[in-house]
Amino acid sequence: GIVFNDIYAASKFAVEGFCESLVVQALRFNVAISLVEPGPVTTEFEAKVYEEAERADYSRTDPETADIFTKLYLRNSKDVFASLGQTPEDIAEHTLRVIEAARPPFRHQTNVAYTPMAALKHADPSGALMTDAFYKLVFKYDAVLRLSLH
What is the dihedral of CA 117, 122, 124, 126, to 10 degrees? Predict the structure, then answer.
């Protein structure tokens, strides 16, 4: 999950859990299930979300949360999308390759830049390694994160 994306992340994790359950059942009938996992996808929707977020009134939000959202999250998120964002056409090409594969993988990440973070999730069952890495990227080393994206 990503800071300020809790509902979005929950929906993605629900799809992931659904597919993990379904893949076992589908194997019984020789049906392949594939989970295509894109990173950020640059669309008009994403651009509109940023425009609305910049115009929003945060006066009723506690100052620390408003500051984190506007100064860290929005800025870092824009940089991530600008640097690592894929086009919908690129995601469609990845999806087509998975569909046409003789043995489609269960998981297919479309953006290799996210492989290290995904590996952290699996390397440490407690979740501490991934949580610590994300925390430091967002709250301690956000300047380094932004520099690495340019």
Answer: 100
pLDDT tens digits, residue range 103-132? Answer: 999 999 999 887 787 888 888 889 899 888
Max Cα-Cα span within the chain:
56
* 108: β partners: 36
**Do 74 and 56 touch, CB atoms closer than 8 A?**
no
Tokens coding 133: 């890495």
CA 99 to chain centre: 22
Q: Against a cut of 0.85, is the pTM above it?
A: no
8: annotated active-site residue:
yes
Name the DSSP letter for residue 136.
I
Q: What is the pLDDT of residues 96-107, one digit of tens each?
A: 999 999 999 999
CB 91 within 8 A of CB 38: yes
Give the C-alpha separation, 21 to 125, whole Å: 20
Q: How far apart are CA 85 and CA 46, in angstroms?
A: 10
Give the tokens for residue 89. 């056409």
